[in-house]
Amino acid sequence: MDQASKEEKLEALERTIQEIEALQAIYGDDDDDDTSSKITICSQSEYNKAQHIIDTENKDNEHIPTLEIEIKLQHEHDQNTLFQSLRFVLPPGYPAYTTAIPSLSSSSSGTLKLTKAAQEYTTCSLTTKSKELIGVEALLELVQYAQDILPDVISQFCKIDAPPKEEEDDDNNSEEKQIGRRWIWVHHITNTQRIKDICSEARSHHLSGYIKSGYP
């Protein structure tokens, strides 16, 4: 590694630490019990090492560490609470000439169930967005982007369990209630509008369940 490349990585590392400190000011950390959103340093030892490298005068032989953070967010959607954990791996050279590597995990309370496909779709979308933002501090924009696409993710991929209905005693009602399996079969599901149309069709028939996008 030449000296110029080392200097670039050190400058990028300093920008990364400054960005993390700014996010801690915005979202709070594990010591802030009154915030619904928190940021966590996943490897505190690596973060401490990064701070030491920036603070020390002898930087020539220091190895630039890979940093990793997690931002926990809370959303309210139709009387459901959705919890998202956005994890970002920040390799040496971020943000100058490498990109943040995002991943997502989620959980929820209520009838809304975030599927694995929804998490994979969001991670893929964040990865694409991250590549577009190479050269700039991208974390805050990526968090905002994840929040912006959440309504579409829910409408396309999420399972919403039907709330329990009260039993009706109506002797004049000749229709029998049925529980069964139904399929809406499409040759392939790769178009966003087609996914929305299928969900709309399912709702019109009072169906709830899963949709699997892609090719058969």
Question: What's the helix-strand series?
Answer: HEHEEEEHHEH
Poorly predicted spans: none
Category from helices, strands and their pairing: alpha+beta
Percent of sequence in beta strands = 15-25%
Number of DSSP-assigned strands? 6
Radius of gyration: 23 Å
Mean pLDDT, to the nearest integer, reads 79
Distance between the first and last residues' Cα: 48 Å
What share of residues is helical?
25-40%
- Helix tally? 5
**Tell me about the biggest sheet?**
4 strands, antiparallel
How does the overall form come out from the CA principal axes? elongated
Strand order of the largest sheet: 1-2-3-4
Question: How is this structure best described in words?
Answer:
The relative contact order is 0.11. α3 runs antiparallel to α4. Helices cover 40% and strands 18% of the residues. A hairpin with a 2-residue loop joins β2 and β3. The protein is built from five helices and six strands, in the order αβαββββααβα. The protein has 216 residues and is of the alpha+beta class. It is elongated. Strands 1-2-3-4 form a four-stranded antiparallel beta sheet.
Question: What layout of secondary structure does this protein have?
Answer:
Layout (H helix, E strand, L loop, with lengths): L2 H25 L10 E4 L2 H12 L11 E11 L2 E11 L10 E9 L2 E2 L2 H17 L6 H19 L1 E2 L31 H13 L12
Antiparallel strand pairs: 1-2, 2-3, 3-4, 5-6
